[in-house]
Amino acid sequence: MPVATPIAVSAEQLDTVRYDANGLVPAIVQEEGTGQVLMMAWMNAESLQMTLAEGRTVFWSRSRQELWRKGDTSGDRQFVRSAYYDCDGDTLLFVVEQEGRGACHTGERSCFFRAFGPDDADRPADETS
Is 27:41 a contact under the CB 8 Å cutoff? Predict the structure, then answer.
């Protein structure tokens, strides 16, 4: 079973994050080891702080207007191994150890399992050439 590992963060680093007009920032989740992009979700200041403190991903649901910890209902939990913010501070990247079937609510390993184009429409992005 994976272990949650908190990420130490300074107030200065947190102040660098730029939230949109709704108080949200996009968070990309990438699988440790494979580098596969698993999903993108939204975070607010509270969910970012919870994610870093707990070592598990916590997001903001725009549709439900509430926090949600990835895997609490599905068992497909994400354990943060490293966390980054981009040069502008307006996008986050989390490298995680994915537990369970995967990150997508459809049951797929990655939310990015559909590719554009007639030959690649249903093949995972990492299998296209």
Answer: yes
Query: Which H/E stretch holds residue 48?
Result: helix 45-54
On the question of pLDDT at 129 being above 50, the answer is no
- For residue range 68-96, what is the model confidence (pLDDT) as tens digits? 999 999 999 999 999 999 999 999 999 99
Inter-residue long-range contacts of 18-25, CB under 8 Å, 24+ positions, other chains counted: 18/88, 18/89, 18/90, 19/44, 19/45, 20/90, 22/62, 24/60, 24/62, 25/90, 25/91, 25/92
Mean pLDDT, range 10-24, rounded to an integer:
97
Q: How far apart are CA 103 and CA 112, in angstroms?
A: 10
- Asked if pLDDT for residue 124 goes beyond 80, the answer is no
Beta bridge partners of 33: none
| Six token digits for residue 88 | 């502008």
Which sign does the torsion angle of CA 97, 114, 18, 65 carry?
negative
